[in-house]
Amino acid sequence: MQELIYSFKVPATGAGRAELAALLDIDPKALPERVRISTLSPLSNRGYSADAEAEVMRLMPEGLLIGTTKGTAPRMLVPWQNMAYLSEE
Fold it and tell me: Which of 21, 78, 80, 89 is most buried, with most CB under 10 Å away?
């Protein structure tokens, strides 16, 4: 199996930013602009416009919710079981 690595924007404000800071044990003001996740399951960008960038929307008990705040695009839940790691980039 091949490990797939994705890069996602960190939200500028909101619950997702605070949740990422708590999980990574980083001061919210010191969070990087992007985080990286590793997964064995490919993620789809279907429904995203060419200029859209996916970002972390929320961290939930089930997994990581990914979407975009610019325009309309589907949101995707990546289960924790499908991730090898989540780290700052």
Answer: 78
